[in-house]
Amino acid sequence: MKVALFVPCYVDQFYPKAAIATLELLEKLGVEVHYPKNQTCCGQPMANSGYEHLTAGCNNLFVDNFSGYDYIVCPSGSCTLHIKEHLHSPEKEEQAVDIRKRVYELTEFLIDVLQVKELKSHFPYKVGLHQSCHGLRGLRISQMSELVAPAFSKPAQLLDMVQGLELVPLSRQDDCCGFGGTFCVVEEAVSSKMGKDRVEDHIEHGAQYITSADLSCLMHMEGILRRQKSDVKVIHVAEILNHSHE
Amino acid sequence: MSNATGKSHPQLAAVFNQDEPRVDWHDETLWWIRQKRDVQAHKLPEWELLRETASQIKNNVLSNLSTYLEQFEANAINNGVIVHWAADAKEHNQIVHQLLQERGINRMVKSKSMLTEECHLNEYLKEQGIDVIDSDLGERIVQLANEPPSHIVLPCIHKKKEEIGDIFHEHLGSAKGESDPKILTETARQHLREVFLTRRAALTGVNFAIAETGEFVICTNEGNADMGAHLAEIHIASMGIEKIIPERKHLGVFLRLLTRSATGQPITTYSSHYKKPQEDTAIHIIIVDNGRSIQLGREDFRNSLKCIRCGACMNTCPVYRKSGGHSYHTAVAGPIGSILAPNLDMKKYADLPFASTLCGSCSNVCPVKIDIHDQLYKWRQVIVKEGYSPASKTIAMKAMAFTLSSPGLYRSGGKMGRLVFKYAPFAVNNGLNPWYKHREMPKAPEESFGEWYSKRKEGKQ
């Protein structure tokens, strides 16, 4: 199985640890992981701002970097969803369509493709799971509270395999954190209030760490936690799943 | 009244957020309604099938709208109802005025109709010297406060009971400081009783118009539409062209969805059918387009016309809950308003499709399955292409797209201070970074993943 690792631009630049954990975890599970080194960005920051027409360069680059793999795995639900829904290339549309079918967010890859049943990880803390909206309602890696349908959660299923970890309940299991790409600056007041309220829910329920399959949400909540000088930390789900006895 | 200030959603939302306890109260009140909706929805195992059925019925309506409208008109005329067609808000308002003028009526009672809010009927009639009293309790409260409704189902959800007490004290003579909802409701009831008994004309909205029979259905919890319509000599019913459903048997699907989605009630208190006028009275229906046929022609946005105005998308929307309905400066606020309003005036409402994180909760509570968040995304593309995006944003986006299209520029940009800081998503708007107001910046690590990976590869060789 030939797997390409897609590391979103802001993860590459700000949260390399999450990408390292993703790589190490996949390798531990016996996957041959390739990292196409000319990758940059999925184009979502432009597209969500109304500039999808400026993403041709990003799209072509993505197709060049990620064609020919069995799977493309990404530690971000949001970027994965963007590729799934919006990757087009007029010159290489066939390859683009193929990539859209092969791209997976990390936790869905672990559950659906690798069918992971156990992990040798250890993380003895109280953890709050933040459901990122794009992973939840876009990729459906968990069941959303809006629908009358059976509950499931791929990230929670994996976290349950981690020794010592206690998932804390939340008052609002899947309310948005308010990041929203450029929304976080255009609508600064609402965005930061949404983030504050999300963080508060985790703190009230005793979380020591807030985790998620999406770092953009975590980056937002981390900004708020650090401003509040809180002891609560954010951590990408890959870092927990890759965390072993020290 | 709406957008008299010319301010945008972010500006108005920032003002709303200056009072954080009020934001919390507003957010919790609406979230409570969302939870009531969840309880009711989960009592019906067939909920998702109901939504799908409603969506399909509405798809059929939109594909055959002119046929159903003509069928409705013919049947309504057969029933003795008089039917008018209005191309826009102005024509609608003129028809209402003319009907009143013909009868020498200068006072009218009106039950809740978002269409008349959209048409600014009250303001228009006031200018013509006609007094309109809204008989829905929430609507009456905002009318006395001289404000537009902030929510399509719960017009005064932004007001606390103490504030309502003050308004009633000033206008209806209740005791100063009285805020007991029971006493305030009784005060309004006495006041409205006199209105119902003395008004010769009543205007109502329409929830559903049935093509098969020519009848229409109005849903209220207070019975105020019925009180007005039954006691008046002329009943004017205003409806948008999209209110049609094909057959009577379809009504049950919508009535089961409407109030469960709206307020978490199993059914509206009054679902009243109007078919034929009583003796010596008249029923007039005004069928209004006002931009709807333009929206019908926009392939990406046409299914916004499936909306049954339940307000579930507002109650669930975290942005609506934390910014308040008035921040949307349009008659229909919230996610659904943000996909309807740009059709009416793209420049004026260019901010609204951006007043969302695209979280998708709206699309999944919607009882008729409108893809609201996808349409918000699509409106953003249209608004930028039509040139209603700030020039500074376009420059930043072009620079970002250029850098991200080149691995070399991306790597050197990253090294120069973490590219993402420079362009997006934090600093696209202006030099003063709004992120930093309430949030710390991420700490830049010593090396990027790409740099780490290259080193590891070298080490392995």
Structure description:
The complex is a heterodimer of chains A (246) and B (461). Chain A has 13 helices and eight strands. With 246 residues, chain A is α/β, with parallel strands linked by helices. In chain A, the strands form two sheets. In chain A, strands 2-1-3-4 form a four-stranded parallel β-sheet, with helices on both faces. In chain A, strand 7, helix 12 and strand 8 form a beta-alpha-beta unit. The model of chain A has no long low-confidence stretch (mean pLDDT 96). Helix content of chain B is 50%, strand content 10%. Chain B is built from 22 helices and ten strands. In chain B, helix 2 runs antiparallel to helix 12. Chain B starts with 8 loop residues before the first helix and ends with a helix. About 2% of the residues of chain B have low confidence. Chains A and B meet through helix 1, helix 2, helix 3, helix 4 and helix 8 of A and helix 1, helix 2, helix 15, helix 17 and helix 18 of B.
What share of the residues of chain B lie within helices? 40-55%
Structural class of chain A: alpha/beta
**Multimeric state of these chains?**
heterodimer
Task: Tell me the number of strands of chain A.
Answer: 8
Binned strand content of chain A:
5-15%
In the CATH scheme, the class of the domain at 44-290 in chain B would be Alpha Beta
| The CATH C-level class name of the largest domain in chain A | Alpha Beta
Overall shape of chain A: it is globular
Q: Can you tell me the CATH topology of the largest domain in chain A?
A: Rossmann fold
Radius of gyration of chain A: 17 Å
What is the number of helical segments of chain A per DSSP (H or I, 4+ residues)? 13
Mean pLDDT of chain A: 96
Strand order in space, largest sheet of chain B: 1-10-7-4-2-3
**CATH architecture of the largest domain in chain A, please?**
3-Layer(aba) Sandwich
Count the DSSP helices of chain B.
22
Strand content of chain B: 5-15%
CATH architecture of the domain at 44-290 in chain B: 3-Layer(aba) Sandwich
